[in-house]
Amino acid sequence: xxxxxxxxxxxxxxxxxxxxxxxxxxxxxxxxxxxxxxxxxxxxxxxxxxxxxxxxxxxxxxxxxxxxxxxxxxxxxxxxxxxxxxxxxxxxxxxxxxxxxxxxxxxxxxxxxxxxxxxxxxxxxxxxxxxxxxxxxxxxxxxxxx
Length: 146
What we know:
Layout: E1 3-6, H1 8-15, H2 21-25, E2 29-33, H3 36-49, H4 55-70, E3 79-82, H5 86-98, H6 103-118, E4 124-126, H7 130-138, E5 143-144
Parallel strand pairs: 1-2, 1-4, 2-3, 4-5
Helix pairs in contact: 1-3, 3-4, 5-6
Protein backbone atom coordinates (compact mmCIF):
# COMPACT_ATOMS: atom_id res chain seq x y z
CA UNK A 1 0.00 0.00 0.00
CA UNK A 2 1.47 3.30 -1.01
CA UNK A 3 -0.93 5.53 0.95
CA UNK A 4 -1.57 5.55 4.67
CA UNK A 5 -4.34 7.31 6.52
CA UNK A 6 -2.78 8.98 9.56
CA UNK A 7 -4.80 9.87 12.62
CA UNK A 8 -3.79 12.98 14.54
CA UNK A 9 -1.65 11.10 17.08
CA UNK A 10 0.47 9.88 14.18
CA UNK A 11 0.62 13.31 12.54
CA UNK A 12 1.96 14.94 15.69
CA UNK A 13 4.97 12.62 15.33
CA UNK A 14 5.87 14.33 12.07
CA UNK A 15 6.55 17.52 13.99
CA UNK A 16 7.42 16.55 17.57
CA UNK A 17 10.11 14.00 18.33
CA UNK A 18 8.31 11.13 20.04
CA UNK A 19 8.56 7.35 19.99
CA UNK A 20 7.31 6.30 16.56
CA UNK A 21 8.35 9.52 14.79
CA UNK A 22 10.74 7.68 12.48
CA UNK A 23 8.01 5.28 11.32
CA UNK A 24 5.68 8.16 10.44
CA UNK A 25 8.38 10.24 8.77
CA UNK A 26 9.34 7.28 6.55
CA UNK A 27 5.92 7.26 4.84
CA UNK A 28 5.58 9.13 1.57
CA UNK A 29 1.83 9.65 1.08
CA UNK A 30 -0.46 10.49 3.96
CA UNK A 31 -4.18 11.09 3.95
CA UNK A 32 -5.70 12.91 6.92
CA UNK A 33 -9.11 13.83 8.26
CA UNK A 34 -10.26 17.42 8.49
CA UNK A 35 -10.20 16.84 12.24
CA UNK A 36 -6.41 17.07 12.08
CA UNK A 37 -6.76 20.82 11.41
CA UNK A 38 -7.73 21.26 15.06
CA UNK A 39 -6.36 18.14 16.75
CA UNK A 40 -2.71 18.52 15.70
CA UNK A 41 -2.26 22.15 16.82
CA UNK A 42 -4.15 21.29 20.03
CA UNK A 43 -1.77 18.40 20.74
CA UNK A 44 1.28 20.55 20.04
CA UNK A 45 0.07 23.39 22.27
CA UNK A 46 -0.73 20.82 24.98
CA UNK A 47 2.92 19.76 24.84
CA UNK A 48 3.81 23.40 25.48
CA UNK A 49 1.42 23.66 28.44
CA UNK A 50 2.98 20.50 29.91
CA UNK A 51 6.43 22.06 29.63
CA UNK A 52 7.61 19.71 26.88
CA UNK A 53 8.07 22.44 24.24
CA UNK A 54 8.90 26.15 24.47
CA UNK A 55 6.25 28.47 23.02
CA UNK A 56 8.48 29.58 20.14
CA UNK A 57 9.17 25.96 19.11
CA UNK A 58 5.48 25.12 19.39
CA UNK A 59 4.60 28.04 17.11
CA UNK A 60 7.17 26.88 14.55
CA UNK A 61 5.79 23.32 14.63
CA UNK A 62 2.19 24.51 14.29
CA UNK A 63 3.20 26.69 11.33
CA UNK A 64 4.99 23.73 9.73
CA UNK A 65 1.87 21.58 10.16
CA UNK A 66 -0.33 24.30 8.68
CA UNK A 67 2.01 24.66 5.69
CA UNK A 68 1.73 20.91 5.12
CA UNK A 69 -2.04 20.95 5.63
CA UNK A 70 -2.84 23.93 3.41
CA UNK A 71 0.22 24.17 1.19
CA UNK A 72 2.12 27.39 0.56
CA UNK A 73 2.75 29.68 -2.38
CA UNK A 74 5.78 27.51 -3.17
CA UNK A 75 4.57 24.01 -2.24
CA UNK A 76 1.30 22.12 -2.53
CA UNK A 77 -0.36 20.61 0.53
CA UNK A 78 1.60 17.72 1.95
CA UNK A 79 -1.47 15.63 2.77
CA UNK A 80 -4.61 14.41 1.08
CA UNK A 81 -7.36 15.82 3.29
CA UNK A 82 -10.58 13.87 3.75
CA UNK A 83 -13.72 15.92 4.29
CA UNK A 84 -15.83 14.77 7.22
CA UNK A 85 -19.12 13.94 5.53
CA UNK A 86 -22.47 12.84 6.91
CA UNK A 87 -21.65 9.31 5.72
CA UNK A 88 -18.39 9.31 7.70
CA UNK A 89 -20.21 10.58 10.80
CA UNK A 90 -22.87 7.87 10.42
CA UNK A 91 -20.15 5.22 10.15
CA UNK A 92 -18.38 6.70 13.20
CA UNK A 93 -21.62 6.60 15.20
CA UNK A 94 -21.91 2.87 14.44
CA UNK A 95 -18.24 2.28 15.35
CA UNK A 96 -18.63 3.77 18.84
CA UNK A 97 -21.35 1.20 19.49
CA UNK A 98 -19.04 -1.67 18.57
CA UNK A 99 -15.69 -0.50 19.94
CA UNK A 100 -14.67 1.42 23.03
CA UNK A 101 -13.74 4.53 21.03
CA UNK A 102 -13.82 8.21 21.85
CA UNK A 103 -15.98 10.20 19.44
CA UNK A 104 -13.16 11.76 17.42
CA UNK A 105 -11.26 8.47 17.28
CA UNK A 106 -14.36 6.91 15.72
CA UNK A 107 -14.44 9.73 13.15
CA UNK A 108 -10.75 9.12 12.43
CA UNK A 109 -11.40 5.40 11.93
CA UNK A 110 -14.40 6.04 9.68
CA UNK A 111 -12.28 8.52 7.69
CA UNK A 112 -9.60 5.86 7.29
CA UNK A 113 -12.23 3.51 5.88
CA UNK A 114 -13.36 6.20 3.44
CA UNK A 115 -9.80 6.63 2.14
CA UNK A 116 -9.29 2.89 1.83
CA UNK A 117 -12.57 2.49 -0.04
CA UNK A 118 -11.65 4.93 -2.82
CA UNK A 119 -8.12 3.72 -3.49
CA UNK A 120 -7.78 0.59 -5.64
CA UNK A 121 -4.86 -0.61 -3.52
CA UNK A 122 -6.53 0.43 -0.26
CA UNK A 123 -4.77 2.39 2.45
CA UNK A 124 -3.03 1.43 5.65
CA UNK A 125 -4.30 2.94 8.90
CA UNK A 126 -1.60 4.71 10.91
CA UNK A 127 -2.30 5.27 14.60
CA UNK A 128 -0.59 4.90 17.97
CA UNK A 129 -3.56 4.78 20.34
CA UNK A 130 -4.00 1.14 21.48
CA UNK A 131 -7.79 1.20 21.50
CA UNK A 132 -8.00 2.82 18.07
CA UNK A 133 -5.45 0.37 16.66
CA UNK A 134 -7.41 -2.59 18.07
CA UNK A 135 -10.65 -1.27 16.56
CA UNK A 136 -9.01 -0.74 13.16
CA UNK A 137 -7.56 -4.25 13.24
CA UNK A 138 -10.90 -5.74 14.27
CA UNK A 139 -12.54 -3.90 11.38
CA UNK A 140 -10.08 -5.42 8.90
CA UNK A 141 -7.78 -2.47 8.20
CA UNK A 142 -4.04 -2.93 7.76
CA UNK A 143 -2.61 -1.08 10.77
CA UNK A 144 0.77 0.64 10.90
CA UNK A 145 3.26 0.62 12.43
CA UNK A 146 3.29 -3.14 12.60
